[in-house]
Amino acid sequence: MSFAEFTLETLEQRMPPPAAQRIAGLPTGHTLDGFLHIVTPELLDEPLAQWLGGVDQSRTPFARTAFGDMIYVRDLRERARSLGLDAETARTAHDVSMVDVRYKRTKLLGTSVGSFLAKLAVPEWVASELDKGLYDAAVDRLGPPAFEEIYAFVPALALGGAENPDNLQRQRADVALNILFQL
Predict the structure, then answer these.
(1) pLDDT recorded at residue 2
(2) How confident is the model at residue 174 (pLDDT cuts 50, 70, 90)?
(3) What's the gap between Cα 144 and its chain centre?
(4) How many domains does the chain have?
(5) How far apart are CA 134 and CA 68, in angstroms?
(6) Does 181 map to a domain?
(7) Is residue 110 part of a domain?
């Protein structure tokens, strides 16, 4: 798959300027030994909307893990204004969150794009918060997944499967994510 590049102008229409500037500076494609795919929002807008209950212009996806977890920026400017925060805080308010598709939950990954990117440089954080340890235990056997693929547990955890690297298989991302969503 050919990854398009981010454009600052497009990102600034969807999120605060500091977040847009940091993300626009990221190279699209695979990172962290193939564990994380950095992509333009258009590639993940539809699946993110499905998992979060509809389109919300304040959420902009920019990455997906090898397990299908979607990472996105939440634009919190309107919320900050409604809370009466100072103008500069309101102008830049955002965080980075993730949809964990295996457990059907969301989690906060950073209070800004900068804090999230700093955490990505800490292997222990990536292993504990994004489950890269599971990926590392399976990648030699399975090879890194292409963007159109994810690693999925067979059977799925929701069906009683065990969170063991030996139970991971490469599957088509769209099919696996749809199945997980329905469970």
Answers:
(1) 44
(2) very high
(3) 17
(4) 1
(5) 13
(6) no
(7) yes
